[in-house]
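Sequence design from tokenized structure. All designs in this work follow the same two-part layout: the structure record, then the generated sequence. An example of the structure record is given first.
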């Protein structure tokens, strides 16, 4: 049985804070990071969502193409876009997060029922890997995000996209966050086949990702800060780009010699915890992963990184 919550130092890994914060007993670490949604799986759509009372009339179909990198990397894989029905509850987007123009509703979509899932958006990525019709017939897939995803794949090797676009209705049906970047066409969950989870997260950042977080089975990577692509979004946006992000928290607990780092706000599963034990001269004695940790003999300090977002430190 756990008996105590320990005092510790906390440092944000996201760049929001640069200083170490001295935290007292029973304190909670808060960090401004995104809350993403749960792992995909076949589910029943959310039937509680109701259509708008005054739906906007649908615009004429067709007429605008979204052009992707394509198999030859010459930006000539162009796909037609359409307006989704405005009375479809699966496409009821939330108001822009914190009034940010990065979270406006799309105005056009790819009609997945009219396109082949084998269409190559980039040399190593097919449309069917990024968007699946059972998660929403109409999908937003931003070309700049696909190009960044291909650049990432060129760097780290083979990747499995475990989650790409999700309609608002599907996202809600699996308990997803109301402003998940999966709904905006620039957020992906990625499982590496040729590198480690921490390295994949680091490389996402190096390839321009606005936010990453590391789970036990995958890395969430999105390009939320990049300009939104036409024709999915209108060109002239006067709204601010920055958005207030939800809070995340963690504490460090001890049960005898065993340490735990419970954390709240991770909606895609358990975050990856990386434990490091240091000796009296600051030398690294051991680094390992796990939900709990028992430091080796001689350790004088332990740090734990949670999801690549939070870091807790304890002097033994």
């Amino acid at each position: 049985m756990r008996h105590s919550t320990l005092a510790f130092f906390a440092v944000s890994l996201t760049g929001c804070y640069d200083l170490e914060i001295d935290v007292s007993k029973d304190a909670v670490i808060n960090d401004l990071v995104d809350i993403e949604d749960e792992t995909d799986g076949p589910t029943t759509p959310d039937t509680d969502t109701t259509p708008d009372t005054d739906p906007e009339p649908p615009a004429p179909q067709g007429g605008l193409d979204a052009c992707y990198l394509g198999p030859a990397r010459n930006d000539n894989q162009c796909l037609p876009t359409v307006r989704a029905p405005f009375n479809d509850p699966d496409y009821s987007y939330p108001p822009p997060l914190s009034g940010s123009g990065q979270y406006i509703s799309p105005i056009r979509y790819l009609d997945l029922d009219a396109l082949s899932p084998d269409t190559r958006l980039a040399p190593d990525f097919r449309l069917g890997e990024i968007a699946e019709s059972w998660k929403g017939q109409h999908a937003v897939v931003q070309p700049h995000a696909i190009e960044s995803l291909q650049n990432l794949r060129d760097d780290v090797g083979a990747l499995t996209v475990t989650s790409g676009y999700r309609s608002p209705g599907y996202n809600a049906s699996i308990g997803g966050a109301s402003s998940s970047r999966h709904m905006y066409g620039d957020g992906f969950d990625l499982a590496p086949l040729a590198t480690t989870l921490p390295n994949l997260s680091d490389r996402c950042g190096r390839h321009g990702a606005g936010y990453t977080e590391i789970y036990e089975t995958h890395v969430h990577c999105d390009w939320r800060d990049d300009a939104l692509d036409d024709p999915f979004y209108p060109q002239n946006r006067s709204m601010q780009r920055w958005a207030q992000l939800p809070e995340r928290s963690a504490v460090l607990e001890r049960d005898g010699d065993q340490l735990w780092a419970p954390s709240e706000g991770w909606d895609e599963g358990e975050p990856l915890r990386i434990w490091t034990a240091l000796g009296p001269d600051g030398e690294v004695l051991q680094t390992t992963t796990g939900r709990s940790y028992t430091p080796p003999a001689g350790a004088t300090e332990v740090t734990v990184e949670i999801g690549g977002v939070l870091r807790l430190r304890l002097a033994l």
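The longest strand covers residues 187-192. We note this feature because it recurs in several other targets discussed in the main text.
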